[in-house]
Amino acid sequence: MHTQGKKYQTAFHKKILPGAMVTRKILHIDMDAFFASVEQLDNPDLRGQPVIVGGDPAGRGVVAACSYEARAFGIHSAMSCARAHQLCRQAQFIRPRKERYREVSRKIMEVFRRYAEKIEPLSIDEAFLDVTRNIKQIPSATWTAQAIREEIYANTGLTASAGVSCNKFLAKVASDMNKPDGLTVITPEQALPFIRRLPIRKFYGVGRVTEQRMLGIGIKTGNDLLRYSRQDLVNHFGKPGHFFYDIIRGIDHRPVCPRRARKSIGSEVTLKKDLQNREQMLSILARIADQVAEALTAKKLLARTLILKIRYENFITVTRCRTSGSLFTTQSDMMAHIPQLLAATEAGRKKVRLLGITVTNLHPQGKQSPRQLELPFPSFAREITNTEDIIFF
Length: 393
Prior knowledge:
The protein folds into 4 domains: 9-33 and 99-191, Alpha-Beta Plaits (2-Layer Sandwich); 34-96, MutS, DNA mismatch repair protein, domain I, CATH 3.40.1170; 198-247, 5' to 3' exonuclease, C-terminal subdomain (DNA polymerase, domain 1); 264-389, Dna Ligase, domain 1. It has 15 helices and 13 strands. The chain has helices at residues 19-22, 34-42, 68-71, 81-87, 98-113, 141-156, 168-175, 188-197, 208-216, 222-226, 230-237, 240-247, 278-298, 331-335, 338-343; strands at residues 9-10, 26-31, 51-54, 63-66, 92-94, 118-123, 126-130, 160-165, 183-185, 264-275, 301-312, 317-328, 352-364. It has a 6-stranded mixed beta sheet. It has a 4-stranded antiparallel beta sheet with strand order 10-13-11-12. It has a 3-stranded mixed beta sheet with strand order 4-3-5. The chain is globular and about 60 Å long.
């Protein structure tokens, strides 16, 4: 038995969610330290060792993934490999093997398909499953989750953690509570008390910046969030305020969507050395815009929103975005706006280590797309100090 003695973790309180939410059985399955675990699986000498999948620690790469042994030293994804090496000199650095990870991912997804028809992959190593009516007709969602975990282990040699609940938010939070190789169940009766005592940093969709803004107005737990009206939350956090208002009341009607529409296309590059010359930055951004435009053409998509991403030498990341009444389809469409967006950053005054362009608000080519009339409002560029706070649901 691969659970190594782990027990199922559950909450224990009594209060019923609204009846509409009780009927669904949602799983969130998440592989444990996926890239690093694949490397340890393929190379037994790496097992039990701090493993970092990413770039050269002597260069400018970042950590793509790391094993739990490496995490014990404070290493995490998106950290510079140089910093990770400082924290753990004995760490083993491995360059990513994307095709190998995709190969293992396909086996995992095959297991999911044996149990559920409604599967919503979130990434190469995690997915939501609606098992309310599952293929094997297993009456318990908990039993279903455990069967899936055991089959994944049998087929790949890798462990997965699972969250089981009545909606996607709770299932996602639950899957992260008992890692690695854990199974956490939050029943409808346990849901409201569980959410309300949850620290705000544990809320799925709350990044570091949003957490600091919440702490700044006294929101530390779900109970604190409950004191705010919907309008107050929208005033403080914009559109995500609606989500926060609903979720603290146990309301999450989002379905598990087997075919999620692509929400964005983007490309970025970590520079070989920090740049301070804006003309050089614009030259690199033109090449990135060309790659994004080619991807749009290949996927037969048009975009209405353009996002410029800048990471300074101190690793602070900012974005500037522009939503236009016209569509972004070519490199020239994007580059007509990029200089103005770049000028709205501190690039040039501060050295830059990463440049990126993403387009969102996508529409299929050849179909009538909604068009926004130009209003007599001044153009604006919006700053987001950490891209994890851009929430797409």
